[in-house]
Design a protein that fits this description.
The chain is α/β, with parallel strands linked by helices. It contains 15 helices and eleven strands. The protein has two domains: about 250 residues, TIM Barrel (Alpha-Beta Barrel); about 70 residues, Non-ribosomal Peptide Synthetase Peptidyl Carrier Protein, Chain A, CATH 1.10.1200. α4 links the parallel β5 and β6. It is globular. The protein starts with about 25 loop residues before the first strand and ends with a helix. The chain binds flavin mononucleotide.
Amino acid sequence: MSPAERICTPLNSDVPPAREGEFRPLNIGRLRLDTPVVLAPMAGVTNYPFRSLCREHGAGLYVSEMITARGFLLGNRLTTKLAAVHPDERPRSIQIYGSDPKDLGQMVQRLVDEGIDHIDINFGCPVPKVTRQGGGSAIPAKPRLLARLVRAMVANAQDVPVTVKMRIGLDPETLTYLDAGRAAQEEGAAAVGLHARTAAQLYSGDADWDAIGNLKQALDVPVLGNGDVFECWDALRMMRETGCDGVIVGRGCLGRPWLFGEFVSVFAGQEPASPPNLGGVLEVMEEHGRRLEDLFGEELGVRQMRKWTSWYLRGFRGAAGVRAQLSRLAAFDEMRPLITPLGLDQPFPLQALRASRAKGSRTQRVKLPEGYLDNRDDDTPPKGPHTADEIRAWEKALGAG
Ligand SMILES: Cc1cc2nc3c(=O)[nH]c(=O)nc-3n(C[C@H](O)[C@H](O)[C@H](O)COP(=O)(O)O)c2cc1C
């Protein structure tokens, strides 16, 4: 394809592919990624079926959704399924959620024994249920606590790289990323990922790429920029503008696993292939369905597929008219007869490239434990869910599975 035929929004029409030697491979500890792109951990999304689809298109690192340390250690059925090893996944990468250093250390040890290649810790979750207890995105506000948790993980990780993923702060008045990033680095984190929004912002507004540049200036370990990479060209722009070492891609790939192939092309200095037409998208959907069924069984697999149908079909002519039926999908083989009449030769819609696929534009006031910010030097771990029942309720609220 020539640049003139490039399928992109005006924002990216003049962005050149990478020049030879412009970007270095991304080194995260002993891992080396020639294409410096990471699939973002996403609850209810980056399970094995989707990770494996993305991986087939590209290179890079494909992180699991967050796996609750306590649920994992208790042997919770869903947690165990989501954390399961798949022999074809290499490197194998998992994101942990937890706030008890003992649990984190133990989980890391088990994962290392099982042959994990990369472990990330979630310090960015903005869900009120989590922050109200002092977990997730509340943790970087207490750098000594964050340091203690990272230390517990690194101490058990042997030579497996441990990375941290966080937001820029709680709200504009409480920006935490520079102190938190330095604390993580000092404790041996192999890289730091920054979703360049506050917890109060949730997913609204534009990500603040300047903050990614600031963190890059402040740290020696690799910095992974995150926020608003919707087109392969955005990754190049983010790396050029901020100097970051790699990018983490979340919402942009929902229903677009081929995006990872596009990253490989542009980082190799080439124009990417065009995205598939509706017929091609339908084939990917059917394959995704088969993989969801393999992992979750037919009933839960079909239920999972419902949300994916709206992501895959975003922007295609006529898709809105079948959305209601697809949201009640009862069997995978209902998809083809519903979608075929829309015209399988429809090209991929330009307006879908930056369309919002999840999470919307709400903002929030971040809920914290009473007096949480009074002593920011405190490193006492917060209380998280503990019993098997508490874990199940917790995972349901966080949208796992
Ligand atoms: C459906 C969904 C689930 C998410 N779950 C997680 C998660 O489990 N762990 C995490 O660190 N971030 C989670 N995130 C945040 C993403 O990893 C990422 O930081 C965020 O979407 C910003 O990147 P983007 O602009 O490329 O989407 C989630 C985001 C979405 C949309």
